[in-house]
Design goal:
about 180 residues; Rossmann fold; five-stranded parallel β-sheet; 6 helices; about 20% strand
């Protein structure tokens, strides 16, 4: 696999616009673009109409999700166009929030194609008040590994109130370290 990064997607799985997750994913994206010259795009899952999985299991025969009347396929196509994506989400009761989990669950339609993300590199950013990182990362990492993505780094950031990440240099340093890890 080539180490060339041409296109980066920063994907925030937070329901809170301009909150800590958005800030941190956007900062990682900015730093990576600056260092690599790659094109980048920042997207928020919450800005898309992603219906929850209906459990219909039609995807098992279709090879894609049966729900076609929302924005899932558009967001999935943008993820598929990236060489590297940074997926950030806050910790809600030890897992990603529903908006992020809906997106993850909807990819079940590609379960037959377990190598669909092969060649993609992914990095994770988890934002919490004080804990829950292990199970939260477990959900996101297992999803990526099932589809063949290579996880190239992760960052655990402590922040609670909206915008707090900007005022915590030690937490912003975790994102800078993530970027260094990705580029190593």
């Amino acid at each position: 696999m080539s180490n060339t990064i041409r296109r980066i997607l920063g994907l925030s799985g937070s329901p809170r616009r301009d909150g800590n997750t958005d800030i941190l994913v956007a900062e990682a994206l900015r730093l990576l673009q600056e260092r690599t010259g790659a094109t980048g795009e920042f997207l928020r899952v919450a800005d898309y109409d992603i219906q929850p999985c209906r459990g219909c299991r039609a995807c098992m025969t279709l090879g894609r999700c049966a729900i076609q009347e929302d924005d899932f396929e558009e967001l999935w196509a943008r993820l598929m166009a990236a060489d590297l994506f940074i997926f950030g989400a806050p910790v809600y009761w030890n897992s990603p929030p529903g908006i992020a989990k809906n997106f993850i669950d909807r990819t079940h339609g590609y379960y037959r194609h377990q190598t669909i993300l092969r060649g993609k590199r992914a990095a994770l950013i988890s934002v919490a008040t004080d804990g829950g990182f292990e199970s939260h990362e477990g959900v996101m990492a297992s999803w990526l590994r099932v589809y063949g993505a290579r996880i190239v780094g992760s960052a655990r950031v402590l922040a609670c109130e909206k915008g707090e990440a900007r005022t915590r240099p030690q937490e912003l340093a975790r994102v800078r370290q993530l970027v260094e890890t990705i580029l190593a």
